[in-house]
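Contributing new complexes? Match this layout with heme C.
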Amino acid sequence: MNKFATSVFALGAVALLGGCAGMQSGGGDNPFATTAFQTILKKDFSSKGQAKVSRLKQTDATQYECSKYAYLGKPMPETVSKGIESKALASVVYPADGRYLGDWKEGLKIASDGKGMQWNDKPGTPNGGNCLACHQVVPNDPSQGDIGPSLIGYGKLRGSSQAILKYTWARIYDSASFNACSFMPPFGAHRILTEQQMKDVMALLLDPNSPVNK
Ligand code: HEC
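Output block (do not edit by hand):
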């Protein structure tokens, strides 16, 4: 794990821990939702810059269900995971102009950039995708992570049929469409990347001239 991946993980842990705020007052079947845990959260976290404590609140059922089963150490029932996946997939917004591929050079910058949405980032400036924190994307880059599968040769191996374009877009838009509790951030669903940035990252994976496919 490199330093970017570690920070992604730290953020993920906060999201997971904070996952229960406001869902159930007594805790119910989610131990994170107890009043005692909420008190600890309130005591130990404070808002700084754009990173507000409100981020610790769960905003959807996916976060709630995923933190619940992760904590209990039990497998999520298939009815729950399939429900989350089909809802996520149905919410994917595909490019309005039907064009999936932007500029791979821009895509490489976005994939390497781990900035954005942190307290010391300027609000309103574009976010990075931080793909290299979790994936091997280009050969011989020392910073690449191994939390996700290697994406080297992605386009060469998969081609660029309409089905692959749609799958890859949906994967980047909201990875929960295929894996309910995916570690991969929902770049489109949570508006981390813009539509154009997603197109550029798509080109990085699928353009035959991209270093990914050389
Ligand atoms: C925090 C780690 C993390 C980050 C950041 C991340 N991914 Fe992933 N990604 C994963 C994991 C883990 C998987 C494996 C599937 C799963 O667990 O859902 C995955 C799967 C994928 C897949 C599907 C691979 C396949 O074989 O079908 C694609 C494509 C992908 N990621 C692209 C990206 C791109 C592009 C970015 C940056 C915009 C990115 N990922 C950022 C963790 C991450």
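Reviewers usually confirm one structural detail per submission. For this one: Confidence is low (pLDDT under 50) at residues 1-27.
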